[in-house]
Design brief:
6 helices, 6-stranded mixed β-sheet, alpha/beta, about 25% strand
Length: about 220
């Protein structure tokens, strides 16, 4: 499966654009294969700039195939933003990245292998830290039917962070709340049984960086 090569690519974003990165939506293909969706708010633009800086160079080889959309509105819930981004997404596959997390330098390349293989989803292997300490591995995959910890590894069925076929993902709504909306949505998809095939990714491609409320306050993070 390939993107439409007849669509001209937009010029890549230069380093000089980085101060305004939080305002830029990367990629503008007419028929993208992948939509990467990011919820944020203006006070967290330092996180968003960091994440987009990581993604910029990765997008260039796939510029006609990938779009990156953000929703930075205030006064609405995270669930509402996630739903709005899903509706805006033009890609045949979708995934979400939390604005204060990071991804590996081969994140998009790994997802595109699964997309070109026409799988329903890609597994996700990542690392979670708490206040930059105690790294632990997590895996989200259709191999697992519950949330559990086995041999110091967190195992989950696919959620919003996984790359999932858009025609499946868009059948379900996030509850309009700020907490637990991701687990609720993931559970709906899991119970539907619609995800049948999966591209397995061994590499650690996602870094979930939990910061406790106490540390957030100290660092003036929102």
């Amino acid at each position: 499966m390939k993107c439409d090569d007849s669509i001209p690519a937009l010029p890549p974003i230069s380093c000089g654009d980085l101060p305004q990165m939080e305002k830029i939506e990367i990629g503008n293909p007419i028929k993208p294969l992948l939509s990467i969706l990011i919820c944020t708010i203006p006070s967290r633009k330092h996180f968003l700039v960091r994440l987009k800086t990581i993604l910029v160079e990765q997008v260039i080889p796939w510029f006609d195939c990938v779009e990156i959309l953000t929703d930075g509105r205030e006064g609405i819930s995270i669930g509402e933003k996630r739903n709005a981004l899903l509706q805006r997404a033009k890609g045949e596959w979708v995934c979400q990245i939390d604005d204060d997390d990071r991804v590996s330098n081969h994140y998009i390349a790994n997802l595109m292998i699964g997309i070109e293989g026409n799988y329903d989803c890609c597994s996700l292997t990542g690392q979670i830290t708490e206040n930059s300490k105690n790294p632990k591995k997590f895996v989200h995959s259709i191999r697992y039917d519950k949330y559990e910890e086995v041999n110091n590894v967190y195992l989950r069925f696919p959620n919003h962070l996984n790359c999932i076929r858009a025609s499946i993902a868009k059948q379900f709504k996030f509850p309009e709340t700020n907490h637990g909306e991701d687990t609720d949505w993931a559970t709906q998809i899991f119970k539907s049984g619609l995800i049948k095939t999966e591209h397995w990714i061994d590499d650690v491609i996602y870094f979930y960086e939990y910061i406790s409320p106490e540390v957030r306050k100290q660092l003036n993070y929102h």
